Amino acid sequence: MIPRRTALGALLALALPLPLLAAEPAQRVIGVGGAVTETIYALGAGDRLVARDTTSTYPGTATELPDVGYMRRLSPEGVLSVAPDLIIAEEGAGPAETVQILEEAAIPFVTIPAARDGAGVAARIRAVGAALGLEDKANALASEVESKIVSVADASASTAETPVRVLFVLSAAGGRLMASGVGTEADAMIRLAGGINAIEGFPGYKQLTDEAVLAAQPDVILMMDRGPGGNHGSANVLEHPAIAITPAGQAKRLVAMDGLYLLGFGPRTADAVADLHAALYPEKG
Prior knowledge:
This protein is α/β, with parallel strands linked by helices. It is built from twelve helices and ten strands. The longest helix is centred in the middle third of the chain and has 25 residues, at 135-159.
């Protein structure tokens, strides 16, 4: 067996000359983060992708690319094995040790900031476009997407006369509810869709007590649709003892949406906001 350090050294030796080949736009790109990869395709540069991370599942053709692992647990060997000349990654990609090795290999590693509103999505699109040398296309797409998000969010707010209280549950596995407070993508989507986050007492995600669930009094439970075998408890979340006696539990109101579509904050976000609003306020349809 070849020692890991030796094998990694060989990969580094192969990767080092790549940036010196030409000053042209990168043609061997890895997209890390579902929204980043989706944006690369939306800009018409999907043919440049040679790999993607596990969260990059849209469009469907992206799943045909080699998978270099989950965005927060990338291995340098997996990334270097596809000989990229550019990595475009969402904020939070790593770990730091992997990023350092890739930087030592002289492979440009562009970090795209997080987004939680129309302006943020537009900024992300422009950042991806700049990394690809597609500024004009990115500016056009960014303006279009931002305008749609603002328009849909304004319409959602104006039609929500009595805002629905929404509890976003990240996981209900084992009967333990992990839910969103403020400052998350879920919190932002709920507000853009004209709802109210039922949990406002803490930032980020936190495990809830039964008392906290009862105090929140959600009208709707919102979760990510993870598909068969990966729903993290969504199939029976309405049967949770605390949720069952809330307005959401009594009315059996559970909304499940594809995770990347709902929380990705990419080119499809305006559609996701509209769909979430329709699910929260079906009487308006």
